[in-house]
Q: What sequence folds into this?
């Protein structure tokens, strides 16, 4: 009798890469709101989602995670990872809802938790400037950078210059996002008949957000036009944000079987 | 309309982390046959598999991968990764069949291809001595080491000392392995009702194996007894092997819905 | 005419791995005071340093760096690194002075700046729990972990449990440390005649320290007794600390030619 | 009394990052001969070296290392690393001699051995296609790629397409290279008075080279023109090479005090 929420399933169930939910998260966020090209991004949405606007938001997050009983943060290599998330503005049956076309994460546990939620995770290295309370030429005063590298290639570069406190959150926001829960089939004649193909919606709980700082931003997609990611290159950058967020995940809502 | 064999699914389908099969592999292998403790490993097998013997084999593989049209080896960071695989000796309805309790890989594309096949993949760093044609104190003459590190902790250490050419392949072997294809459900009241839970069997094709070298081996599981992996620590080490293997994957056989 | 503070020296001098001082640092620190075994550590001190006490302190630091005009923190992969530092309590001509037997860092620029100051740097991966202002099961409340991995092997594990604010700094402290500035000679008959072999003392300036939190601590050297590092394993753990520090380096004092 | 060839110097001398010479190396090499722009590269040479021609050669090497008694290849994470080396064609008092303006390596031990020899080492990630004896779509038949990433940014991309066996070695070659042995001074008023500043020449011994394969090549420096490395971008690519090399290092020749 084998147990565990994910593979590897084992007699005691302790070796699963991801333990049973709930999963608890807290993170430092740099975010940039921008618009992309409608002609390039609209076709990313699975039906019946429709494009609500060309507004996108890219989030760079420095996460710390713990399971319900785990205190994984006491062995921080097991707990910490960084992530870059692109969200676009969709509508589902008249309800505004973010949708995630691309996301990159730096740890396998977060990769698998992501697949289970429908996040289209790939591995990548996110770097984010850190703030400090002490004055130093090495401590930014409102001027932060964030970058993404995938397979040894710089994909995205950005900077924010904050000058406003107590701002509104950026949008679209990742709480309540629509995602594609998907598991392909390798059986020879069924490569185009996935075992799981559903439009789902995140159901985070206990979401807490700090005060939000806001300001100007720069955003540069370094990838060539041959890479599909270039579809999400910015047309106009709207603003930069910095805040902390905490949330718990142990549920998911199925919107549609596709 | 979005396309692609895996997430992320995109308008052109070129950005999928894993492209459509077939997937082509070639690798350098160090392997060690050993026996483990029946009382500890028997319960790892999903029904209706039964334990055929306590013989296990651990494979350390330095892989190079290409998709059907990809020539990914020309951008080798996209193509190369290393893997540690533990196989145990099972029987399915009287047929001998390896089963994989644990596997660690160093690349996200290989991680996801693995999940699709039922491999219980986790990320880990495998290191393997290399052979060279030139004589050098830095070039081993039959004496190779292989190690596994997971999340910054050494898990497995091994050495082989080869003295026999044209040996038989070690067993159990990974071609034709039984695996567990598994995708858990995050919907709140269905955490124990996975969306996919099937006993499957690998169907590799075009398998080629070089001549096989054989000799003595050492194998040491460094993990503490609290870690379930210690269940597979060696009772007796039988022998070490070195060879090359090539194979193509584009099919899978479903043995049982669980 | 080639320029630059370090190799590679180039026509414009912009490609040097390390730019001209001053170098500015700011960091989050977890530290643990402890005593080690006099019989094992006393012989680490170069003459004329003498052992003042068996008190040692291990620092785990999450650094951000900038050069005088660089704003490297805007491309944080160029600016951030983590470090583990062991200091012992020495005396130089009657003056108390820390001495560093071992240090591990995660970035080449910091490695080379270290050698230039006399730090005996090696590469290693330090992980440190992060604090957050938001309440979350993933955010520690005074309970932090810090670990060191070198070449894929866990070397050091630790935890601190803070319960006291506005404490004194731990000691020995790294400002004003004695170090060994050393550059060996590869010329065939001079392998034991280093080109540089001096006892030096750090001269940091503009040192700022936040308030200091203090509490209990655990510290475990995982390395085997065959590894010389085990000489610094704790005999008694005295306490754990957490604080921020900022400092600037552009000078060094030569104490003795050895 | 502390011992050891490099820092950290310890009572037993076993913990030095780099042990006493001799150091033994064996490696798989992909190399590309090309010409660069005389106006851009000539000023890289320290006096009294002069530019012999605009011919350069870039080497991508997958190394395995052992010390005299170490058998480090049995713990391959301690032994293996990859390197990218650019060499230019210089002349010293009428004698042809390569000079190295840039080099990137993936391991700290190799970094420090390099500094001791005068190599201007930086950390970087080199990837090189591997050859296999088995036929596979994943095994290149004469078509290899090699790339360099530094701090998460792709710097150099290349491919070679081999069609000639038993070719001559490329040039300039790294055996016998002129290098700059250099150790800067941090003492406040001596930042421009390095402690060591010498033109030296490598003295490898027991150099062995396999047969050499040759063919066409592509070479692309991805870095922007703001990066000094772009000085070495190719004007004309002359050819690609693949071979193995073994050598031992335990000596160095001082040509000039600078």
A:
């Amino acid at each position: 009798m084998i147990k565990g929420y994910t593979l590897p399933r084992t007699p005691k169930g302790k070796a699963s890469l991801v333990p049973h939910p709930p999963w608890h998260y807290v993170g430092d966020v740099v975010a940039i709101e921008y618009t992309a090209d409608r002609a390039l991004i609209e076709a990313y949405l699975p039906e019946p989602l429709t494009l609500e606007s060309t507004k996108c938001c890219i989030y760079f997050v420095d996460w710390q995670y713990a399971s319900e009983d785990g205190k994984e943060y006491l062995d921080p290599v097991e707990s910490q990872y960084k992530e870059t998330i692109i969200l676009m503005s969709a509508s589902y049956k008249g309800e505004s809802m973010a949708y995630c076309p691309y996301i990159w994460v730096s740890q396998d546990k977060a990769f698998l938790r992501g697949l289970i939620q429908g996040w289209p995770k790939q591995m990548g290295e996110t770097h984010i400037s850190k703030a400090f309370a002490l004055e130093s030429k090495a401590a930014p005063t409102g001027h932060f950078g964030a970058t993404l590298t995938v397979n040894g290639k710089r994909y995205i570069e950005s900077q924010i210059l904050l000058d406003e406190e107590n701002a509104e959150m950026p949008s679209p926001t990742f709480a309540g996002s629509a995602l594609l829960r998907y598991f392909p089939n390798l059986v020879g004649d069924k490569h185009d008949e996935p075992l799981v193909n559903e439009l789902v919606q995140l159901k985070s709980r206990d979401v807490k957000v700090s005060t939000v700082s806001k300001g100007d931003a720069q955003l540069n997609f370094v990838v060539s036009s041959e890479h599909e990611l270039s579809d999400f290159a910015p047309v106009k950058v709207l603003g930069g944000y910095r805040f902390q967020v905490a949330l718990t995940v142990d549920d998911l809502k199925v919107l549609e079987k596709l």
